[in-house]
Amino acid sequence: MSHIYLAGPIRGHDYETVKATFAQVARQLRQLRRAVLNPIEQDEMWDNDPGKENFSIRKALAIDTKWICEECDLLVCVPGWESSRGARMEHALYRVPLIRTRAPIDAIR
Q: The whole model's pTM is what?
């Protein structure tokens, strides 16, 4: 089974809109029987919601980058990812030689 990570802009955008976009892309991929790490779901699970005052970017990146390095087979980029420093960092990490051989793909809305 493919393990897919969703990368895209989260902070600095309308949280509910971003959450809906990530959920839609994750749902489409899960219908194809793919394991998907949606970072918004992950943050909420760890009570580290970007919409909350106690949000820790360090905690979020620690969890997400570990998953990218250890589990991720494919990175799917949500529209607008190029404008996000975090998503660009995740994209660069995914592209590190010897970690991945497949190019990231852009999600279709």
A: 0.83
